[in-house]
Amino acid sequence: MSKYKVLNKSIISLIVASITIVLTFSPNAHANPQLHHKGNDYSSYIGGSTQAVNGWSTAVLSTSTLMDENKRLGRTYVQAWARLDTIKAHYGNYYIPTVAAIETKMKTVTQDSSFVFDIQGTNPGENLKEHEIDTTIFDLLDYKISGVGVIGSLLNQYSNGITTGTDQDISNSKNGTLTFLWPTDASLPNTISWKDANKAIGAYKKSGVTAEFNFRIIDGLQVHVAPQARVQYGLYTATSITPLKIWSAEAYVQHTIN
């Protein structure tokens, strides 16, 4: 047998071994990975301890978990929605509500669980975008059309400093946070019950936000966790250019993994 054939067999063996490792440790590698729905929840509070009108929900959450066959690597999906219908009914015509942010979080709830549990990443990850408007043209036009500079100044105040995208914080591997800033299509109509808000997150829906938290568990032990979400609303008046921001209370589902 030539040395080239021996070399080729060695390369093939190395490739096969590498593929085996990937198939063993990747949660996505199995033919039929099972997504376990862990529950739905809602909050009916906003601004601390104030309950929304009629006890309607102000934040809605649904969560599921996927584990590898060794029960050491997994991912939790947290999908969350705002309830603009509730906020509009609560404040009437005084405020024009928007969704300023949705904060999703994955955390352990017992000391023993924290010891063996680590969040390793999120999907999406951190992707922040700052928006600014160049008002130079408004200042130049102000020499010819009085008042245009004021418009540029107002636009500058309104847009500058606004940040969109996702803000990731996994500096504490036991308590990871992914915040969606100024998300679009983030609200769930009140005609849809919080109980029916996408029970199987694998069946994606366009509304709301979805955060994926990737984690590992030492020795495949059982851990106690509580994925959660809350919504920050931006409240505008007819004359305001910056909103009053107010948070809902957290919706969460406490459960075990493994």
Question: Structural class of the helices, strands and pairings?
Answer: alpha+beta
Residue fraction in strands: 35-45%
- Which descriptor suits the 3D outline? globular
Give the number of helices: 5
Mean pLDDT: 82
- Secondary-structure element order, N to C: HEEEEEHEHEEHHEEEEEEEE
Largest sheet entry: 7 strands, antiparallel
The total beta strand count reads 16
Unreliable parts: 2-7, 9-31, 135-144, 148-152
Distance linking N and C termini? 50 Å
Radius of gyration: 24 Å
Percent range for helical residues?
A: 10-25%
List the helices and strands and how they pair.
Layout: H1 3-25, E1 35-43, E2 45-46, E3 50-51, E4 59-67, E5 73-82, H2 84-91, E6 96-107, H3 111-116, E7 117-123, E8 127-131, H4 136-141, H5 148-159, E9 162-169, E10 175-181, E11 209-217, E12 223-225, E13 228-236, E14 244-247, E15 251-252, E16 255-257
Antiparallel strand pairs: 1-4, 2-3, 4-5, 5-11, 6-10, 6-13, 7-11, 8-9, 9-10, 12-16, 13-14, 13-15
